[in-house]
Structures are given as C-alpha cells and as structure tokens.
C-alpha cells in the first residue's frame, strides 16, 4: 500500500512540476504589466505600434494594442528629429530580423534631420525612442531557439528529493 501511495505521489508531483514549468516558460518576467488577453501562439509578443506620430508620447499613448504576427520576432522604432533633438516623427512596428539590419543613426543632409533606428525583442520593449548611437541598437535579450532538455533534466533531482522526503514522513 505504501508503494502505491508513493507512486501516486510521484506521478502527481511530476504533473504539477510539468504544469508550472510550462507556465513559467511563457511568462515574460521583464514585462511591467502582463497581457490581459491570452497569447495567440507560443512566444507571441506585443510592440508599441504607430505610423509617423508627432512624438514618442503620442505614439505610445495612441498605440494599437495587438499581437505581432508569427513571422516577426522584434520591435522596430524609427525616430526622425531635428539636430536640436525635437521629434519630427516616430514610427514603431513589429519587425523581422531583415527589417532590423539597418539600426543606428544617420544624418540626412538634404532635409537637415537625424534618423535613428533601433530594434529589440520582448514584450513591449520599444517604449523609448533612439536618439544617438548609444541607444540606436539591435538589443536582443533572449534566444528564439531554446532547448527544453536542460529544464526537464534539472527537474528530476528536485522531484526525486521531494518524493523521498514525503515518503519518509
């Protein structure tokens, strides 16, 4: 009878651990506020999105709250501003890796304005606008092709220790 209880406990503990591991994998711990609606697909994310807003405040304030398409993995921000730092336009969108190849700042001599482009990954990571070479970068925080094998292997000793302690009690 004790062996049966032990096996049931092991299976129960295994499913609880598996459930929590799956949940933790989908949580973006850098996000200030969790999304209210469920994610449409694994590793989905949101970006601030606007087209030629007058400045960063208006872009973020009126940004449409929607999930990025599955073929995108980054948030891209294009900031046009005067040489004195006054914003002329801000564009933010979901982007592919190819769309993020031209990050950095450029001076447009014909119009006399600066253009800075940055890309980042993560839930609503494009809050700020790039203003110089220091922050006009391709900022990648996470890997998009992770293996879960190490997570399962790490759970086995924890599960065994817990069941052993419960078996003794």
Automatic annotation (TrEMBL):
Q: Which GO terms describe its cellular component?
A: plasma membrane; side of membrane
Membrane-related topology note:
Lipid-anchor; GPI-anchor
The record's Gene3D superfamilies line, in alphabetical order, gives:
CD59
What this protein is called in its record is: Ly6/PLAUR domain-containing protein 6B
Q: Which SUPFAM superfamilies match?
A: Snake toxin-like
- Cellular localisation: Cell membrane
Taxonomic classification: Eukaryota, Metazoa, Chordata, Craniata, Vertebrata
GO MF annotation list: acetylcholine receptor regulator activity
Q: Tell me which species this is from.
A: Pyxicephalus adspersus (African bullfrog)
Which stretch is the leader sequence? 1-24
Keywords per UniProt? Cell membrane, Disulfide bond, Glycoprotein, GPI-anchor, Lipoprotein, Membrane, Signal
Predominant subcellular localization, coarse grouping: membrane
